[in-house]
Write a structure and sequence with these properties.
Oligomer: homodimer
Order of helices and strands of chain A: EEHEHEEEHEHHEHEH
Number of helices of chain A: 7
Number of strands of chain A: 9
Family (chains A, B): Belongs to the RNase H family.
Enzyme class (chains A, B): hydrolase
Catalytic activity (chains A, B): Endonucleolytic cleavage to 5'-phosphomonoester
CATH class of the largest domain in chain A: Alpha Beta
Function (chains A, B): Endonuclease that specifically degrades the RNA of RNA-DNA hybrids.
Shape of chain A: elongated
Helix content of chain A: 25-40%
Distance between the termini of chain A: 32 Å
CATH topology of the largest domain in chain A: Nucleotidyltransferase, domain 5
Strand order of the largest sheet of chain A: 8-7-4-5-6-9
InterPro entries (chains A, B): Ribosomal_bL9/RNase_H1_N, RNase_H, RNase_H1_euk, RNase_H1_N, RNase_H1_N_sf, RNaseH-like_sf, RNaseH_domain, RNaseH_sf
Largest interface: A-B, 5 and 4 residues
Chain lengths: 253, 253
RNA sequence: UGACACCGUGUGGA
DNA sequence: TCCACACGGTGTCA
């Protein structure tokens, strides 16, 4: 679960994409006017490589800490995505608590199919946003499952997953109460749990590490930021075709 | 046993520290956007007063940034006015982690008085170097204060300042532990905090922006580089007379 | 005590 | 543009 970075070299010894900094550094070290940049996912890097270095938009949060593994090994960005339908959900909240939004990325047969953003909440938390993401991922999953498709949901919030797929059983059996105090975000949890119950034998809900360069998670993350930026209260589709590098360049300010 | 509280007023009628709530309340009552908070000790309050209120409420990033920048400049300019004794400290580490050194520049009555360099550590970090700088600045400050001189320390490491003047209070109260893991550079922090406690009511510790052309900071920076170059493990004075522009022309961080 | 997430700050280097 | 060193807070649960 180490963070894999992808380095685009536009101008250097051998332009291309590299998976470790030492490797990338060789291409740019000592090259006058070298252009290069790191990205969290290969998809992002490939889009950027084709777009060229022109934009200075920069992913502002590129340098969140997580240690990179020693060598340029291939991290399993693929391991968690091998279903007929894969739905990634994410939430953002800036500051936390504060304005919050949700994003979804849907893959069908391993290809990006739809992007959704919205559910803006001017007074949310990171967890309301993540629960909204999971709830709506479940709703999308329901359609897929009813169409006979093998479906998985990928969520980076252990809290949201456990609320809906684990703890909710116990809470419900005690009439949605908890010894230690009121259950936060209860309505959202109840809604999501109800949908989950309908699908429980037919879907997989997986935890994916955040900020690990997993494409679907990164795209859902950007959508959640877009939701905040646009204060979009509905859940609306992002119109195709998808220009990934443009989407990833979205920023507030 | 009623606890004595200390009230910091950052924005109000008359910013400062108050020792009773009625007194503090007068300063903030009816003042739009007033910022204030109570602390358990005067030392904590003073550190907090200098650090600023810390929490942001704004959601508009651009305008917020500009505004806080402007007001931050104002605070700094006001607070950085000359003292009878001004001590600048800095640390360098090249590469980081790696060989590290520390430098100090001391002004007395607005005139450069001494330059110190050393504390070479062949396996340091930027932060060990900065903490060494702050520790030894505090030691120098102690002499000055005991001589009845109004004294300030200027440090460009927010990390070092906060470790010693702010976070150390909480860490000490929890037996020098932290929720999120072990405290790095603990011995250095403990030493510096102990000296700080002796002086807390009689000195000012200020943050200065790095690489901003502030003479004292620049000179301390050159001294820290010199410490690495000479691998000087003691803290030794740079012999006068001082040719400031020649010193500033030395290799810098 | 642990886990996941969401935000924020500064410095040291190439 | 890249790397690394260090830290704070809140949201939530078992």
């Amino acid at each position: 679960m180490a963070k894999q970075k992808f380095y685009v070299v536009w101008r250097g010894m051998a332009p291309g994409i590299y998976t470790s900094w030492p490797e990338a550094e060789k291409q740019v070290k000592g090259v006058a006017g070298a252009r290069y940049k790191s990205f969290a996912s290969r998809a992002e890097a490939e889009a950027a490589l084709q777009s060229g270095p022109g934009k200075s938009t920069g992913t502002k949060k590129a340098s969140k800490d997580r240690k990179s593994q020693a060598s340029g090994d291939k991290v399993t960005a693929k391991a968690s995505r091998w279903h007929e339908v894969d739905i990634y959900c994410d939430g953002a909240c800036d500051p936390n608590p504060g304005p919050a939004g949700t994003g979804l990325a849907v893959y069908r047969d391993h290809a990006l199919s739809e992007l959704w953003y919205g559910l803006f909440n001017p007074a949310g938390t990171n967890n309301t946003a993540e629960l909204q993401g999971l709830l709506h991922a479940l709703k999308l999953a329901k359609s897929a499952v009813e169409g006979g498709r093998q479906t998985a949901i990928h969520c980076d919030s252990r809290y949201a997953i456990d609320c809906v797929t684990k703890w909710a059983f116990g809470w419900k059996s005690r009439d949605w109460t908890r010894k230690t105090g009121p259950i936060m975000n209860l309505a959202l949890i109840q809604d999501a749990h109800a949908v989950y119950l309908e699908l429980v034998d037919r879907i997989t809900v997986l935890h994916v590490p955040g900020h690990a360069g997993i494409e679907g998670n990164e795209l859902a993350d950007r959508m959640s930021m877009l939701a905040i930026q646009k204060a979009e209260t509905d859940l609306v589709p992002c119109p195709p075709p998808f220009d990934i590098s443009a989407l990833l360049a979205l920023e507030r300010g």
